[in-house]
């Protein structure tokens, strides 16, 4: 089960995700996380505790980043595990969202 916590740090908001980012996280991301981020200008999404992402999870991540970018927010995805980043790169997620999104 996916959970998230919000931590205001200096000039940005850190979103710490925990658990698998998959179809089960859809409701949490779309109904709880995205609305709670819309008033922030600089957001870091921490993937340190996300061991698995499936295709629906990638769609969710794309939706989050694109929705926030539409509000002029700057979004960074940080601490992505190697095996998860390999999947992101295989599916060209950095190319789609922009290399600058990933740290």
Automatic annotation (TrEMBL):
Transmembrane segments: none
SUPFAM superfamilies: SpoIIaa-like
Domain STAS as annotated: residue spans: 2-103
Full protein name: Anti-sigma factor antagonist
